[in-house]
Amino acid sequence: MTVKIAPSILSADIMNLERDVRAADQAGADVFHIDMMDGNFVPNMSFSPNVVEGMRRVTDKPLDIHMMMENPDAYVKQVVEAGASTVLIHAESTQHIYRSIELVKSYGAKSGVVVNPGTPLETVKELFPIIDRILVMTVNPGFGGQKFIPGMTKKIQRLDQLRQTAADDNFDIEVDGGVNDETIAQCAKAGADIFVSGSYLFDDLGGLKDRIDGLRSLAVDAKQ
Ligand SMILES: O=C(CO)[C@@H](O)[C@H](O)COP(=O)(O)O
Ligand SMILES: [Fe+2]
What we know:
Keywords: Carbohydrate metabolism, Cobalt, Isomerase, Manganese, Metal-binding, Zinc. With 224 residues, the chain is an alpha/beta fold. It has a single domain (4-223), classed as Alpha-Beta Barrel (TIM Barrel). Helices cover 36% and strands 18% of the residues. The model has no long low-confidence stretch (mean pLDDT 97). 5-O-phosphono-D-xylulose binds at residues 8, 10-11, 33, 35, 66, 139, 141-146, 176-179, 196-200.
């Protein structure tokens, strides 16, 4: 699988969101990562389905929705209709994660399950046959600009080993939180395929293309 770089618009300039999305699009973003927070599941609030709809009007790139909310099922239809390509749901946010994933698939979107740093991989193993992606949080969710939790590299590695053992199960491994030029190589080497990066990319809009290219080549090299 090829490496994918996914800018997280949480770190974009909210008053210039269209400018920043267009800049990241032209700079070679593979997919956009949209964090949706409800102020309950995480101690912060961010984007709603109308932002997905707005994003859809300015870019043709896939839109990944990272749902950090209680009762995510209630919003799946709305975000898919707004233009979501993949809906990522936290295993910790719903009592019936298998049903939530089936719900996403029923609307024709790709499905992903997210695991917090403290959640064991065992929790999501039964989803392997039906899931398109597993997102390993490498910070506690809620805010951009946090420091990568070093122990998560081993977790990614264990997930990659489990994936290889279950050869029939095809899912991509994604990482989110504290991904930058110092941390991406270890994630790629451990088996990650898709790399979310927020503050590192949007902190330097002029250098955005160099940063996206730089992250991509670090990841590609680490995978060889
Ligand atoms: O889901 C989240 C935070 O909860 C992320 O998607 C952040 O937006 C990543 O930002 P950086 O850690 O790369 O600054
Ligand atoms: Fe995220």
